[in-house]
Amino acid sequence: MSNVTFISRTGFQAKNDPNCFNRLHPALKPVAHAKPGELIVFETRDAFDNQFSPKSTPEQVAFADLNLVHPMTGPVYIEGAERGDVLAVTLVDIEPDEYGYTVIVPGFGFLRDQFSEPFIANWQLDRLSATSEQIPGVKISMCAFPGSIGVLPGEIELEKALAREAQLAQAGGFVLLPNAAGAIPADLFGEQGAHKDKALRTIPPREFGGNMDIKQMQVGTTLLFPCFVEGGGLWCGDVHYAQGDGEVSGTAIEMAARVSVRTEIRKGWGEYVKFPQFEGGIQLQRTEPTKFYATTGIPLKARGELPPHLAYLDSPKAAALENLSEDLTLATRNALLQMIDYLVQQRGYTREQALIIAAVAVDLRIGQLVDVPNYVVSAVLPLNIFGD
C-alpha cells in the first residue's frame, strides 16, 4: 500500500515482538518512520498481553502477571517533528478484535477496598456491540478508543517524572516505580537492561500522554501531544472497545485492535500546549445516552472509615471525620457505591457484575465544585444497554 506505514503485531506476546515495548524512556528506538499526513496503522495488543482468552476464569485473573501491562506498539518517528512542536494525531479508524475482557484484579481499581475477589467478563465483539455470558442481559455499543497513546518523554521529562513519583511513593502514595521484571525490550529495561532503573511504567498518564483512558478520544477526534524528542515518538495500545468515564474496576472492555491515524505537526505550539489536549465535533454527542438512571454522591463517610485515598490519614482525629471538605474522590466513591446498590437491588446483578457494568458503561460527572464543603458527583447509567 502506498503512503501507509503499517506496524504489525508478531509473536504470541510482546516479548517476541520487535514492534512493542512496555516501559517508557527516551532511549526507545523508532520501529518505523512516517511523514505527516500519511496513514499510520498500528496493530496493538490487549492490555494484559494475551494472558486471557474466551475461556478464562477468575482464577486466571488472580495469577495474572501485572508486570506485562501494557504492551505498546511503536514508537514511530514523524519526520519534521521537533521538541517544542505539537504532534496532532487524528484517529481515523479502530478495527476491533473478536474477543475482549473486563477484569477485577484484587488490590487494583477505584473500589479496591470493597472488592477482594478476582472476576472476569469475557466479551464477544464486532463493530456494533459486545455481549458477555458473565453479564447477561447487557449489550454494550462499540465506542472504541486507545486507552493509552502518546509520545516519548525527553530526558528532562523522564527525570522529573521519576523524582516526583519516587517522592509520592515515599509519602505512601499508590505508585508503580520502575521494575525490570517483565520489562521489554529486555536489552533496555530488563534485569540486565541499560536503563532498568529509570524506565517509567505505563500505568499513569503524564505530560507526554499515555494511559489517559479518555473515552472521548475516539475516532474522529484529534489528539494534541507536546513533542519532547526529535520525531515525537508516537505510540499507542491498550485499546478499549467501550468504557464508562472512570474505568472504575481498573479495566474497560480490553481488546487487541488495529488503529489507523494521521498526523500533523503544529510548529511552536508546545509553548502553550504543555499537557495533552484534544479537539473534535460530534464525538461527544455519540457518548450521550437517550435514556438513563443516575445516582449522586457528596463527601460523607462513616465514622472511622478510611477509604484507600485517605489511608495515609491514620491519626484519631482524621479517622473520626464524617463530613470531609471539598473531597471530590469521596463524592465520586459515594455516587458509584449507590449505583452498584441500584444494579444489585433493582437489576438483580451481583456486586462484581455491577462493578463490571459500571466500568464499561457508567459515566462519572462533576456536578459542582463550589458549594463547599459538599462537591457533587453523578454516576450516569445508560439504560439502553439493557434494551430499555
Automatic annotation (TrEMBL):
GO terms for molecular function: hydrolase activity, acting on carbon-nitrogen (but not peptide) bonds, in linear amides. Pfam families: FmdA_AmdA. InterPro entries: FmdA_AmdA. Signal peptide: none annotated. PANTHER family: FORMAMIDASE C869.04-RELATED. This is Formamidase.
